[in-house]
Amino acid sequence: MKISELFGAGNRRTFSFEFFPPKTDAGVQALERTIRELAELTPAFVSVTYGAGGSTRAKTIELVQWIEREARLTAMAHLTCVGATQDEIGGVVDRLVEGGIENVMVLRGDPPAGQTSFQRVSGGFSYASDLVGYIRKRFGRKLCLGGAGNPEGHVECRDLDQDIMHLKAKVDAGLDFVVTQLFFDNRVYFDFVKRARAAGITVPIVPGLMPIRTVAGIERMTGLSGASIPATLRAELERCRNDDAAVAALGIAQTTAQAVELLHGGAPGIHFYTLNQSPATRIILTALKTARLA
Description:
Layout: E1 14-19, H1 25-39, E2 45-48, H2 57-71, E3 75-80, H3 86-98, E4 103-107, H4 128-139, E5 144-149, H5 160-173, E6 177-182, H6 186-198, E7 205-209, H7 215-225, H8 231-239, H9 244-264, E8 269-273, H10 279-290
Parallel strand pairs: 1-2, 1-8, 2-3, 3-4, 4-5, 5-6, 6-7, 7-8
Helix pairs in contact: 4-5, 9-10
């Protein structure tokens, strides 16, 4: 099923999970268990990341096909511009389509390890909007295309107005919906949506939330994404920095409170960045279901 068909269907909110392809067989088996556990919560869809430089390209394709075939969930494959020519990327999309995948998250992608900036390969794409346009020209409406939004601005573009114009270019090229980068202050999401609508962006904008598991982990992720941690949350994280159980509990409480406010504020759903773990996401989504918000 195309994800675009889920938005607004009977005022349904979409709840979805993101995973990354493990590097080992043991990791694959653990992730398959996690996906089966979370499948009980009937997510609208799940997405699978691509890996820097397309390093997990084959595993991404295998995993989304397994999710559709074995877990019987709607899957979305990430696709980036990094380290591949137009023909190579076209071949990947061909494989996805041949495998029955109807949903693709189109991204420029982060630089591979060891590189400090994005470098377009000869014959490749410079921007996600270019890749969106290529897929639309080659495959028409056969695929549903999602894209990324940055409520606090892309780490390489802190000018919020300019960043919105970059997002509009992707939407104008053919995106069906947007999923945001992680954030911890809901005001930045609501302001982001307001600015996007003012710019003429009308597609659904789904907030992406990441339950905090460890202080070091979230510091690393916010450093990469450019997301900020509010002072009150940072102070509480610092207080329990060396107690992983307390940090995880705080993360669950924080994300649950965020999700409740976002849904009451009109968000079309929540996309959870799971880091391939099920406990926190299970607890949060169960709480939302109990409150009849999911």
